[in-house]
Amino acid sequence: MEWTESVLTELRQVTRHSQLPYVRTKALALLKVAQKKPITEVAAVFEVSRQAVYDWIDAYSRLGANGLRVQKGRGRKPTVDSQEVLRYVRQSPRTFGRDRTRWTLTLLAEVVPCLKGFSAYGVQKALRRMGITYKRGQPWIHSPDPQYEQKKTP
């Protein structure tokens, strides 16, 4: 990459004014590379791998300052199907052959196919991402008795 004065000016501005700390760090690392510091030394100072520094140089040369930001779509994709979980959570465990009236985190991990193998804490995190809180009171109670409505009316 060619380190022109306009590139160096932009990197200096990013190091001072970016709201994202990791972008400022990457810009500082690139400024050190532009000052002819060895990549190994720059990587050691910023406690990253040499490949990370090379990746930052490549991203900056392709996209400019926006290349220093974390791109969307990175990371592990969720394995939990929220529609499937909601189908189960909105019904009684008895519907699925369990002799319980309320769901527990462990029971959900056993019954819901997309939650198989999850720990109780993993199920709790998945539910929290979907906006479902654990052990909240129900607004009304439905009796499992099929003749409940007839018995309820005098």
Task: Explain the overall architecture.
- There is one protein chain.
- With 154 residues, this protein is mostly helical.
- The chain has two domains: 64 residues; 54 residues, no CATH class.
- The protein is built from eight helices and no strands.
- The protein is rod-shaped and about 85 Å long.
- The N and C termini lie far apart (84 Å).
What descriptors fit this protein?
single chain; 154 residues; mainly alpha; 0% strand
Question: Could you give a short description of this structure?
Answer:
By secondary structure, the protein is an all-alpha fold. It has helices at residues 5-17, 21-34, 39-45, 50-63, 82-89, 105-111, 120-129, 148-152.
SSE order and pairing:
Blueprint (H helix, E strand, L loop, with lengths): L4 H13 L3 H14 L4 H7 L4 H14 L18 H8 L15 H7 L8 H10 L18 H5 L2
Helix pairs in contact: 1-2, 3-4, 6-7
Total number of beta strands? 0
Average pLDDT, all residues: 90
Number of separate helices:
8
Order of helices and strands: HHHHHHHH
Give the count of structural domains: 2
Main sheet specs? none
Shape: rod-shaped
- Give the structural class: mainly alpha
Distance between the termini: 84 Å
Spatial extent as radius of gyration: 27 Å
Content of β-strand: under 5%
Helix content: 40-55%
